[in-house]
Amino acid sequence: MNTDHSPEVVLGVGAGIAAYKVCELLRRFTESGHRVQVVPTADALRFVGEPTWAALSGRPVATGVWDRVHDVPHVRIGQAADLVFVAPATADLLAKAAHGLADDLLTNTLLTARCPVVFAPAMHTEMWEHPATRTNVATLRSRGAIVLDPAVGRLTGADTGRGRLPDPDHLFAAARRVLARGRAPADLAGRRVLVSAGGTREPIDPVRFIGNRSSGRQGYALAATALARGAEVVLVSANVGLPDPAGADVRRVGSALELREAVLAERAKADVIVMAAAVADFRPAASAAGKIKKTGAGPAPVELVENPDILLELSRERARAGQVVVGFAAETDHVLEYGRAKLERKGCDLLVVNQVGDGRAFGTEDNQAVVLGADGSATEIPNGPKEDLADRVWDLVVPRLASDDTDR
């Protein structure tokens, strides 16, 4: 392990066309002070040559187990790393890593590394969805490796689908979250997490809606930190203008009814459900087909009906044994009083209660909260970055998952 203040990153490069995007990821690492050792596979050099990697990293490229044999590179590189980040991780590389094969320098490095290992897959949709690849991914995740889900978009040629390497900025953000945890175990590895984020919009007409001020930042922070802890993440996003966390499977919705449908469709596969979205309590009984015009007689009243209570439904009707449900409560006053009443009424395992308004919580980079537990616990989280609050929430979730191991 590197002992100075510059993290030592091993950047493994697989043989995929997306290797060209990894050049930008390498720049992000070096420009932010990370020391990077690039370890490409032999075929990866067919896509981006050794001089490019050497110039961008400022270090010689490690290409083979027979180079500088006296330094024992197939052992030393992995031992010295603070993070191994593999991108693009091809189907072939994932298969070799899952089965412990070591036929080149990169696969040897993966076996000797005792630091966090992140795979960023990129391949055609059919390859990603093949049962062999899915089994290999599940195997790696069960061992504590972080395997990010690929993005949806344009692939090689005219094809479009899931399998695209996420953008370098998003990959770098994911790497920094993992590095921030140091050598803490990926304690959500092998777990599937469902997170809702943002604020629902209930249409009055095609132009206007009833909504709220939620930016989705806290929900996105929960998704990003869960990914850094090894979870497989499905993120149900309601009207959010933030970049997708690299590796999350994002489902976009607009209204409360759409959010409910998306969450219920995924709940049976989730070990944890975190309802961080601000779901509207009411919606118009009817939405006008065209824009409502001024008539001079004043606005017609908008009749409202209640939306389904999604958190209550999820808590009462658990889709699997041991499932942990986390809710959020935004209050303007009597925060703990209303929070405790809501926890009892909703029946969730944890309720994150925070005060909003006057520049607090909504749209900000920081947040503070009290997390109330069904067991009577109350954990105060002081003001700080929303990612820090998210990590504290996961710290409370993990021990509640421990007893579920026998049910999986």
UniProtKB/TrEMBL annotation:
Signal peptide: none annotated. One of its GO terms (molecular function) is phosphopantothenate--cysteine ligase activity. Residues 188-397 form the DNA/pantothenate metabolism flavoprotein C-terminal domain. Its cofactor is Mg(2+); FMN. The keyword Lyase applies. Binds 1 FMN per subunit. Keywords: Decarboxylase, Flavoprotein, FMN, Ligase, Lyase, Magnesium, Metal-binding, Multifunctional enzyme. Pathway: Cofactor biosynthesis; coenzyme A biosynthesis; CoA from (R)-pantothenate: step 2/5; Cofactor biosynthesis; coenzyme A biosynthesis; CoA from (R)-pantothenate: step 3/5. CTP binds at D281, K291, P308, D309, I310, L311, F328, K342, K346. Its EC number is 4.1.1.36, 6.3.2.5. Residues 1-192 are annotated as: Phosphopantothenoylcysteine decarboxylase. Residues 193-408 are annotated as: Phosphopantothenate--cysteine ligase. It catalyses: (R)-4'-phosphopantothenate + L-cysteine + CTP = N-[(R)-4-phosphopantothenoyl]-L-cysteine + CMP + diphosphate + H(+); N-[(R)-4-phosphopantothenoyl]-L-cysteine + H(+) = (R)-4'-phosphopantetheine + CO2. The keyword rRNA-binding does not apply. Residues 8-153 form the Flavoprotein domain. InterPro entries: CoaB-like_sf (IPR035929), CoaBC (IPR005252), DNA/pantothenate-metab_flavo_C (IPR007085), Flavin_trans-like (IPR036551), Flavoprotein (IPR003382). NCBIfam families: coaBC_dfp. In the C-terminal section; belongs to the PPC synthetase family. In the N-terminal section; belongs to the HFCD (homo-oligomeric flavin containing Cys decarboxylase) superfamily. Catalyzes two steps in the biosynthesis of coenzyme A. In the first step cysteine is conjugated to 4'-phosphopantothenate to form 4-phosphopantothenoylcysteine, in the latter compound is decarboxylated to form 4'-phosphopantotheine. Catalyzes two sequential steps in the biosynthesis of coenzyme A. In the first step cysteine is conjugated to 4'-phosphopantothenate to form 4-phosphopantothenoylcysteine. In the second step the latter compound is decarboxylated to form 4'-phosphopantotheine. PANTHER family: HOMO-OLIGOMERIC FLAVIN CONTAINING CYS DECARBOXYLASE FAMILY, PHOSPHOPANTOTHENOYLCYSTEINE DECARBOXYLASE. This is Coenzyme A biosynthesis bifunctional protein CoaBC. It comes from Nocardiopsis mangrovi.
